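pinned: reference chain
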Amino acid sequence: MPINNSRISASDSRGFWSWLSSNQSYHSVSLFLIGTHRKRFIFLAAVPILWALVANFAPLLKMLEISFYEAYPLSKGREIVYTLDNWVEFFLLNVYTIPFLRSIVFSIILTISTLILTYPIAYFLAQHLPKSKQLLYLLILLIPFWVGEIIRTYAIMILLGNRGLINLILQFFGLIEKPIPFMYTYFSLGIGIVYLTSLYMLLPLYSILEQIPKNLLEASADLGAGPWTRFWRVTLPLSKDGIASGCTLVFLISMGFYAAPVMLGGPSSTMFSETIAGHFNVAADRWPVGAAFSSIMLISTLVIAATFLKIMGRGGKGIIR
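pinned: its structure tokens
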């Protein structure tokens, strides 16, 4: 009996393909898709582009729409009422504007700190290590980032806690009597976010620094330029695209962090992402307010990032020349 089924299945399959190959519509579509390399490229590119649009922009547009609702989720029989109150509420209360401004300033400071800390590492990897060892060292640096954000945040808590590694070492050598309260401060939050975002700064910097021809540095040295002059006049201007990309990524990611501020920050270091999450977690019709605040943060971060890229002169003239 199984043999007969397989024969029937094979027969049906051959019949289907015979019908498909003789179908005029199938031939027309096939000829259109594979007729030229250009059409094949357009077809292959359209699928991921369409997916990106649906997966990324559709939720954002829905969030923007909800931000104008009077209430959401809608109860049964309740009609949609549009209002601007959710957006106006942000500007009326300091409890919202202060965390927002704090998040922007803090993210800018952390972005600059991450750049200062990771640039020497990227420069060493790209300019002072042989090609055969660069990949190995990059893989070693990437190992901590193979685990999730929350696990790495817990690692920072273990390091900075009252009974953490740093306090234990300081107490062991008699440098302190009581543990230093690192946790739940701007310091612990800053250390955590710099650690979590350093990879997004390191890779763009390494990628651009690795492309700088060494003969340019040798030529500038032959012309009498010292190490600092070569760095400021040759290396830094040629690496501005990597700086722009890395700083933009770190700033955008820092603004959107939620787990790290909750786990490492304190009441005085509340970030705007925590304020937004509070509106979605409460058992009330606060989703429209949360959606409005999310839209405000998204628009603000994009404007700041675009302004920074313009100032840096990515692809043109800027402050680094």
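why pinned: The two ends are 79 Å apart (CA to CA). The longest helix spans residues 94-127.
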